[in-house]
């Protein structure tokens, strides 16, 4: 049986997506875990969003790995405004445009595409591009971005690699994603430069397709509990410390 709710004594209430002028990094720091979801059927989008909220993770990165991505984002943005819905696996400007038209509040990409980064910045939407090397971190910095996704985190070398990569870049913060789950989440969150971790383990596409929203809610609550125990106090984002 998977425990629900927060750990007694741990100061970690539900993360709040807040208003349209959301301080995205502060929100991520409070959230600690970003659910990365592949939705194949638009009808699953709203119950999925509600399960994540009930589990204490009011955020959904809907990946452009399926044809249902944009419509799923639109469905969530329209029916569940209390969740922060964004687009993941954004590979080009056309997908970024579709994501924003659908109501995405942030964009995540697996790699660093300057055209996608520039588009998001021109539109004033938070963008978290993927990086895997020091050169790519430098490319993000050159465009004024200091929040990046380390992808694929585990395959690239895990926590040790992340620490070595982050070391030369004083102000850069990371959202490691790829291969993270309940067993290694705390180790990533223990790294000072990590704002939050991305992952699909609580929203596996098979669970979504099967309509197993109770299980998704429980897995989200478990992720939230592990994350809050690992990081009871928010360490990144000046506004996130205000409670
Ligand atoms: C992503 O799209 O960011 C990754 O596929 C998520 O990685 P995971 O499935 O290993 O959590």
Mean pLDDT: 90
- Count of alpha/pi helices: 11
Beta-strand segment tally: 9
Number of spatially distinct domains:
1
Task: Summarize the biggest pleated sheet.
Answer: 4 strands, parallel
Strand content: 5-15%
Helix/strand/pairing category: alpha/beta
Secondary structure layout plus pairing:
Elements: H1 24-31, E1 33-37, H2 45-54, E2 59-63, H3 69-79, E3 84-88, H4 93-102, E4 107-108, H5 114-122, E5 127-128, E6 130-131, H6 134-142, E7 147-150, H7 153-156, H8 158-166, E8 173-174, H9 185-189, E9 197-199, H10 205-209, H11 213-230
Parallel strand pairs: 1-2, 1-9, 2-3, 4-5, 6-7, 7-8
Bound molecules: 3-phosphoglyceric acid.
Characteristics of this structure?
243 residues, alpha/beta, four-stranded parallel β-sheet, 11 helices, disordered N terminus
Structural description of this entry:
The protein has one domain (24-231): TIM Barrel (Alpha-Beta Barrel). The chain has helices at residues 24-31, 45-54, 69-79, 93-102, 114-122, 134-142, 153-156, 158-166, 185-189, 205-209, 213-230, and strands at residues 33-37, 59-63, 84-88, 107-108, 127-128, 130-131, 147-150, 173-174, 197-199. Helix 6 (134-142) links the parallel strand 6 and strand 7 (147-150). By secondary structure, it is an alpha/beta fold. The chain has a four-stranded parallel sheet with strand order 3-2-1-9. A three-stranded parallel sheet has the order 6-7-8. It contains eleven helices and nine strands. Helix 2 (45-54) packs parallel to helix 11 and helix 3 runs parallel beside helix 4. 3-phosphoglyceric acid binds next to strand 9.
């Amino acid at each position: 049986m998977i425990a629900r709710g927060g750990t007694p004594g741990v100061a970690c209430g539900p993360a709040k997506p807040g208003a349209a002028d959301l301080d995205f990094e502060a929100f991520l720091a409070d959230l600690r875990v970003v659910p990365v979801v592949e939705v194949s059927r638009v009808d699953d989008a709203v119950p999925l969003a509600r399960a994540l909220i009930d589990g204490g993770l009011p955020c959904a990165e809907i990946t452009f790995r399926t044809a249902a991505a944009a419509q799923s984002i639109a469905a969530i943005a329209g029916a569940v405004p209390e969740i922060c819905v964004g687009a993941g696996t954004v590979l080009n400007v056309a997908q970024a445009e579709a994501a924003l038209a659908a109501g995405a509040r942030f964009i995540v990409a697996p790699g660093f595409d300057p055209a996608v980064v520039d588009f998001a910045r021109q539109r004033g939407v938070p963008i978290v591009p993927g990086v895997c090397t020091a050169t790519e971190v430098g490319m993000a910095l050159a465009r004024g971005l200091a929040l990046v996704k380390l992808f694929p985190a585990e395959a690239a070398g895990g926590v040790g690699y992340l620490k070595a990569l982050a070391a030369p870049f004083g102000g850069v913060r990371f959202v490691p994603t790829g291969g993270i789950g309940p067993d290694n989440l705390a180790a990533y969150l223990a790294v000072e430069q990590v704002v939050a971790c991305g992952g699909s383990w609580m929203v596996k596409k098979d669970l979504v397709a099967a309509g197993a929203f109770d299980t998704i809610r429980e897995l989200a609550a478990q992720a939230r509990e592990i994350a809050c125990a690992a990081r009871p106090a928010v360490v990144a984002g000046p506004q996130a410390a205000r409670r």
